[in-house]
Amino acid sequence: MEMLDIVDESGQPTGTTVERKKAHELGILHRTSHVWILRKEKDRIEVLLQKRSFIKDSFPGCLDISSAGHIPAGSDYKESAIRELQEELGIVAKQDELILCGQRRFWLEKNFHGKDFFDNQISNIYILNRNMEVDEFIIQKEEIDLVRWVEYEKCIDLVKNNKELNCIWLEELEMLKEKMDTVLV
After folding, report:
1. Are 110 and 163 in contact (CB under 8 A)?
2. pLDDT tens for residues 70-80?
3. Is 23 helix (H, G, I), strand (E, B) or coil?
4. 44 DSSP β-pair partners
């Protein structure tokens, strides 16, 4: 059973925890870390996208952020981000490699697998610079079907014009722009 900290409007734990499943059934505010893996390839910036497994409880089969995850009770944003990178993609990274782009809050109501799903999150958004080929990632098959690199501007277009099934928030993708020029040299 995965337990999450219930947090206040600024993302600080309140001292109370909730089971992840219950947080999504009731729309209880909790935290996640989102890591966008970027690389510079032939003077273009590329974003690593993952295709979520069809067995995921939310957004099955959708293109998504490079790596993301809920923050277990008692953990912090960066600690969780590092753990998710290792579990989902086989990447060993250090906390000081994560570049904070900002924090965002969002609310989502959807139905997946015949069940209502309420997502009430505060997320820290990070960039990680990694110049790896797709076959170098060790993907967690329970979570991810595949990963692929997409040129940043094409990714914006893909999301903005809904050219492929995805669960990417355009606002979040645009947050990267402010930091990526200083990160990718």
Report:
1. no
2. 999 999 999 99
3. helix
4. 41
